[in-house]
User: Fold this.
Amino acid sequence: MRISIDVQMHYRFSRPNTVFLALETARTDGQQVLDSTMQLGDARVDRIIGDDAIGERIWARVPGLEMRLTYRAMLDISRPVTSLDGLRAMPLHMIPGAVAPYLRPSRYCQSDKFMAFVEKRFGHLVGGQKVAAMRDWVEAEMSYVPGSSHADTDVLDTFAARQGVCRDYVHLFCALVRAAQIPARAVAAYGADVWPQDFHAVAEVWLDNGWHLVDPTGMCAQDAIAVVGVGRDAYDIAFMDSEAPAEMLFQQVQVSRV
Assistant:
């Protein structure tokens, strides 16, 4: 599948500022970046490798009080749509060192608080079948409500409220999967079928010695997702982190099939 991405951002700062951006699609398995452009005006840009060597992050030093950003990209997504049901969960002693951190609780995903619930609700299932049941449960139990959560909302808040946006779905899904002793990580992404259109978050689970994309919201299939970067939770995959207070003047994300 070929998709196009168009991002426009205009922010005002209280002083000259440094921002940390995770916006550009990664050059990684299952997707080919055919063309991309990033315009940041007079900002000075430094790039670093993203977590787990997936994608790049940008340090942008903005000399004035406003930042205007344009990002456009064209991608071919070749990632197959695979079923989780037949995939095996790996024994703990066979999980690689680079994957093991995604078994642990994190800032927004206190997975250790869900072990009893997961055992009671999903304990009769194993491997990919268990993960698929968790994904289905999250989509069925949650309501997608823009504006219902904020930057400090964690998975305990989400579990109680049963509503949120994509980041909240991902936190709940990852917490359940980690509580079942299966690695899960958050993924910054663009999705061709996301509505309302915005930056998107999905998840990946470690099954059969590989990472597999999962969208807990149910909006996007694996072949309609463009990966930007990965991390433990929303703290690691935020599209922008600002050193100074930031006021959004305009922001638009458009992702479409070509």
